[in-house]
Design goal:
Length: about 450
């Protein structure tokens, strides 16, 4: 089998490319060699030699035992650095794990933090009273930012004020005179989103006003209620707003779209208070109908709890599974979502006057903990501790405050309690405490760790 490949013939002439010739001409000359003691040496050789010379000089001045000790110390330092890095990474992993576990338990309503036993009664120096000339009449409501930087207070004169907590001064004021097109009478409720993007206010009209909490610029007006809006609350970490009105309805609004969502009916008398946490649920009390209702918004259903006789005036969630309520007959009740009747009750929690129990004017809770506070007009704010696995609660101590305590709010870390106080009840003028002053009390707590 023949093939041209195996045939012998003249060798093929290879023609070089022109570019190859040019490149060959332009080839750089090699650098002059580094000479040391008559022979060539590279930079790396010099570095190695310098290191070895230093090591040699160090070892020349030490004995064998000293060298062993030095090397052992060096080895231990390296191990210490490695272990420190590992511990740091482990701490980060542990912190992430704890945070995820906390968020999961909080969402499920099973997070329990026992802090009530750490609280000590504050001294007079720990209580500060703040007045503002714009708050001519009784303060009715207060809300705090989640990061603890701002506080907003509203009063019956149709004014709300923005306070800087760190600056300890007023940062802005919106009055009835300057914003009469938006504010129609006294402020009845305030609510702030978790991300401090929107501030919602209600007054004696049927409307809800939305503001920018930073610039206090008016953004939007929600219309739809047929009675005075008495309660506002944002679902945590969202822009969903729940409003409660004297028209016996609860309405849901989306501030992301500035739109109405739906209306919930069920109460047989005007609603007096509303609250919400992370779940798509709202809790309300219906005053004289003596019921507490939990609105399951997604399931389009409601849970009904039967309260004590009288008017249920306030309700606050401890977590997603427990809450407390206050009545005009002076009774404070502890509830579970699993039972239709209170787990525990204390009648006349703030005593009585001329044989008539003092009303529970407001409640506040430290979320996911065993601590809550109640206010009335007996010149005291009372702090309570929940014990026996949420089966009962007991008093811890009282804080002397003169006047009607109409609204309260703990800071997120629980180290401060803000109380809006006035001469009159927030909903009317049945009584008047002439010795009281209209203003904001800031109570600092020293925790016993």
């Amino acid at each position: 089998m023949s093939s041209n490949f195996f045939l012998k013939g003249k060798s093929r002439q290879v023609h070089k490319r022109k570019s190859d010739i040019i490149n060959k001409k332009k080839a750089k000359k090699p650098n002059a060699p580094n000479l040391e003691n008559g022979h060539e040496s590279s930079d790396s050789d010099l570095e190695i030699k310098q290191f070895s010379d230093a090591d040699q000089s160090e070892s020349d001045h030490e004995t064998a035992e000293q060298k062993k000790l030095r090397l052992a110390k060096k080895y231990l330092q390296e191990i210490e650095k490695e272990e420190a890095k590992r511990a740091e990474l482990q701490d980060v992993d542990d912190a992430i794990e704890k945070r995820l576990q906390r968020d999961y338990l909080e969402q499920k309503g099973k997070l329990r933090i026992e802090v009530a036993s750490m609280y000590i009664a504050p001294s007079k120096n720990d209580i500060r009273f703040i007045r503002a000339k714009e708050h001519r009449l009784t303060l009715t409501s207060i809300c705090l930012s989640n990061d603890g930087q701002y506080a907003f207070t509203g009063c019956k004169s149709g004014t709300f004020i923005k306070w800087g907590i760190k600056e300890k001064k007023k940062l802005g004021v919106v009055t009835f005179k300057t914003h009469s097109q938006f504010i129609k009478g006294g402020i009845t409720s305030l609510a702030l989103t978790t991300d401090i993007k929107y501030l919602a206010t209600s007054d004696e009209s049927n409307d809800i006003q939305i503001w920018d909490p930073h610039s206090l610029k008016h953004l939007h007006t929600f219309k739809g209620h047929k009675g005075t809006v008495i309660g506002l609350v944002f679902r945590r970490n969202t822009h969903d707003l729940y409003s409660a009105s004297k028209d016996r309805s609860v309405k849901i609004w989306s501030l992301s779209e500035m739109a109405y969502v739906e209306t919930l009916f069920g109460h047989q008398s005007p609603i007096t208070a509303i609250d919400a946490l992370t779940r798509e649920r709202a809790i309300t009390v219906g005053g004289r109908d003596t019921t507490v209702r939990i609105w399951k918004i997604v399931e389009e259903s409601q849970l009904i709890f039967n309260g004590p006789q009288g008017s249920l005036d306030d309700v606050k969630l401890l977590d997603e599974e427990h809450f407390v309520s206050g009545s005009d007959n002076g009774t404070i009740c502890l509830w579970s979502v699993l039972k239709k009747k209170p787990l525990y009750s204390i009648p006349e929690a703030h005593g009585s006057e001329n044989g008539v129990p003092r009303w529970i004017t407001c409640l506040t809770t430290l979320l996911n903990s065993d601590l809550f506070a109640s206010g009335s007009y007996d010149s005291h704010i009372r702090l309570w501790k929940i014990c026996d696995a949420y089966k009962k609660f007991e008093p811890i101590f009282n804080v002397e405050i003169n006047g009607f305590v109409n609204s309260m709010h703990f800071t997120s870390d629980g180290k401060q309690l803000y109380a809006a106080v006035g001469q009159e009840h927030k909903s009317g003028r049945w009584f008047k405490e002439n010795n009281a002053k209209n203003g904001l009390f800031v109570i600092n707590f020293n925790l016993d760790k």
